[in-house]
Amino acid sequence: MKKVSVRRTISIAFMLMVGLFMVNSFAFAQVKPKIAILATGGTIAGVGQSEVGSAYKSGAITVDKLLAAVPQINNIATVQGEQVVQIGSQDMNDMVWLKLAKRINELAKTDVQAFVITHGTDTQEETAYFLNLVLKTDKPVVLVGAMRASTAISADGPKNLYDAVSCAIDPTSKGRGVMIIMNDKILGADDVTKTMTTAVETFACPNYGPLGIMYNGKPMYTRTSMKKHTVKSEFSVDNLSELPRVEIIYGYSNVTPLFVDAAVKAGVKGIVYAGVGNGNPSTTLQDALVSARKSGIAIVRSSRVFSGPTSQFDEVDDEKCEFAASWYKNPQKARVLLMLALTKTDNYKEIQRMFIEY
Ligand SMILES: NC(=O)CC[C@H](N)C(=O)O
């Protein structure tokens, strides 16, 4: 009788342990968040001629190879990789933006919990800002790149990619708008820009400061963006098959209306003027921009100066000229916002409102 009950106790204990193990491993499998990594190319996928030289080809390796270099990611997330394009980001264009945005909006409706986009650094800030304005999700979306090719000594891509995944799967990253992770920093799409051509420490938010830092694989946030983005944005790519054409024209001393005239002739819908100082055009340039405006082209004044606002009511009478001032948007981000603004309106007052809100 005693023997039977001892045996029974042992077998019950054994079954309990097996049960516990199964529940545990099931729970563990459940805990790993599902993440989509959308690859577009860039130096992070770059292959160099040597480990020490700077010459390399960007976008040379695929998403699978990229992920194979960082097996640690499999410990923290279940990854679904997709190769969207395989380009240097100097070749990024509106069509890829629309494709990327539509794909993320579609995946956001599934059980994918977060998104990481690998991207070349040259135009990474523009893609980030575009997505920030058109994605209809509060699931975390993080762009990541590298300054050193994957074959270089001390390649920065693997750590940046691990940080990007860690940031994206963290519950505190929800609803913060699109972010860029580079070199331990978490940078908001509304302000982030590339500040040095070759350095690893190149991305910064010159006006608002970073959103936080990555520390031991965890995001430590110190700031939240006050600008409208993602689910609160009025812009949508749902019915768009192309974007209105907007060109950027650069300001300098002795500038002539040559490029404004060319833009008008080419039939652009908007011009961003990267003016000197507080977005100032020369007298002749201003006349050319006013006549472009009169012909129906939207004009936004921005600045070639690295930081600070291009503010209204300074040396240019924006009301009289029917211009909008870009405030904290640099010319390349101003172009993104103006393209989306033009999908809604060409009223300069409305466009000005958007430049204040986004
Ligand atoms: N560091 C980089 O990613 C630059 C490589 C390339 N020009 C690109 O932007 O894709």
TrEMBL record:
<dbReference type="Pfam" id="PF00710">
    <property type="entry name" value="Asparaginase"/>
</dbReference>
<dbReference type="Pfam" id="PF17763">
    <property type="entry name" value="Asparaginase_C"/>
</dbReference>
<feature type="domain" description="Asparaginase/glutaminase C-terminal">
    <location>
        <begin position="245"/>
        <end position="355"/>
    </location>
</feature>
<dbReference type="GO" id="GO:0006528">
    <property type="term" value="P:asparagine metabolic process"/>
</dbReference>
<dbReference type="InterPro" id="IPR037152">
    <property type="entry name" value="L-asparaginase_N_sf"/>
</dbReference>
<keyword id="KW-0378">Hydrolase</keyword>
<dbReference type="InterPro" id="IPR004550">
    <property type="entry name" value="AsnASE_II"/>
</dbReference>
<dbReference type="InterPro" id="IPR006034">
    <property type="entry name" value="Asparaginase/glutaminase-like"/>
</dbReference>
<feature type="active site">
    <location>
        <position position="43"/>
    </location>
</feature>
<dbReference type="InterPro" id="IPR027473">
    <property type="entry name" value="L-asparaginase_C"/>
</dbReference>
<feature type="domain" description="L-asparaginase N-terminal">
    <location>
        <begin position="34"/>
        <end position="223"/>
    </location>
</feature>
<dbReference type="InterPro" id="IPR027474">
    <property type="entry name" value="L-asparaginase_N"/>
</dbReference>
<comment type="similarity">
    <text>Belongs to the asparaginase 1 family.</text>
</comment>
<protein>
    <submittedName>
        <fullName>L-asparaginase</fullName>
    </submittedName>
</protein>
<dbReference type="InterPro" id="IPR036152">
    <property type="entry name" value="Asp/glu_Ase-like_sf"/>
</dbReference>
<feature type="binding site">
    <location>
        <begin position="121"/>
        <end position="122"/>
    </location>
    <ligand>
        <name>substrate</name>
    </ligand>
</feature>
<dbReference type="InterPro" id="IPR040919">
    <property type="entry name" value="Asparaginase_C"/>
</dbReference>
<feature type="active site" description="O-isoaspartyl threonine intermediate">
    <location>
        <position position="43"/>
    </location>
</feature>
<feature type="binding site">
    <location>
        <position position="89"/>
    </location>
    <ligand>
        <name>substrate</name>
    </ligand>
</feature>
<dbReference type="InterPro" id="IPR020827">
    <property type="entry name" value="Asparaginase/glutaminase_AS1"/>
</dbReference>
<dbReference type="GO" id="GO:0004067">
    <property type="term" value="F:asparaginase activity"/>
</dbReference>
